[in-house]
């Protein structure tokens, strides 16, 4: 028997030569015989081949319509329809991400403008009482905080001294505090707080902000705005 006949009768040729219209009849569990032993069709090889040959469907465009992909709403769709759907979903996702980034940028710009104005207002303060009033009024009006306080820590006050040493060990603390701590710092119960220690060059002072929202201040949040206000207070307090 000639080699041509052997090639025509090979199991692989039956798969490759299958008409495009009958592609569904091949199913997903394709197999062929090698030395009279059934071997599963390697889907990974097929995947690698298609990735290495992106023009495959250009050469066999009829497969795009003949092959069907399961769809949870429409039953089955062609590869072209499936690709269009995936691209539409990706576009929608990117639009949401862009909108989110634009909202964040707008909010950051507003915070920057607020912080700049606050710095000028604090620099214009002539005494400690005016500084406290400007600081508390500005932060409450802009962010809706319930309390804004500058608290001097005296050694004889063991509760404040304990907060100074233990609660604010890393210069900043964001999150929840105990009822006892809240009462000592803010005079009553609060949701969440931001605390920092000011420079010890002008005694021990805690700068504290409280919100009624328990989730407003979180340990993982950024401290940029808080640190900028802290630097301004470190600059101003020794002069008042």
Automatic annotation (TrEMBL):
Key word Coiled coil present: yes
Signal peptide boundaries: none
Pfam family, one: DUF484
Residue stretches in coiled coil: 77-104
Assigned keywords, A-Z: Coiled coil
Keyword Coiled coil found: yes
PANTHER family for the chain: DUF484 DOMAIN-CONTAINING PROTEIN
Protein name (record): DUF484 family protein
Organism listed in the record: Shewanella intestini
């Amino acid at each position: 028997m000639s080699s041509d006949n052997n090639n025509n009768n090979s199991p692989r040729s039956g798969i490759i030569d299958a008409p495009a219209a009958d592609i569904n009849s091949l199913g997903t569990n394709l197999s062929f015989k090698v030395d009279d032993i059934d071997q599963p069709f390697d889907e990974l090889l097929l995947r690698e081949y298609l990735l290495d040959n992106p023009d495959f469907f250009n050469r066999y465009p009829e497969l795009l319509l003949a092959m069907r992909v399961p769809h949870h709403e429409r039953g089955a769709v062609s590869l072209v329809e499936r690709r269009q759907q995936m691209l539409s979903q990706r576009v929608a996702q990117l639009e949401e991400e862009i909108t989110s980034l634009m909202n964040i940028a707008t909010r950051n710009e507003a915070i920057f403008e607020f912080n700049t104005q606050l710095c000028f207002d604090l620099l214009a303060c002539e005494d400690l009482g005016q500084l406290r009033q400007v600081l508390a009024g500005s932060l409450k009006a802009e962010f809706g905080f319930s309390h804004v306080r500058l608290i001097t820590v005296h050694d004889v006050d063991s509760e404040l001294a304990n907060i100074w040493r233990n609660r604010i060990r890393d210069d900043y603390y964001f999150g929840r505090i105990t009822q006892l701590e809240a009462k000592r710092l803010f005079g009553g119960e609060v949701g969440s707080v931001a605390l920092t220690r000011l420079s010890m060059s002008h005694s021990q002072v805690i700068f504290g902000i409280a919100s009624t929202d328990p989730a407003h201040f979180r340990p993982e949040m950024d401290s940029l705005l808080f640190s900028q206000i802290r630097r301004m207070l470190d600059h101003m307090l020794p002069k008042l």
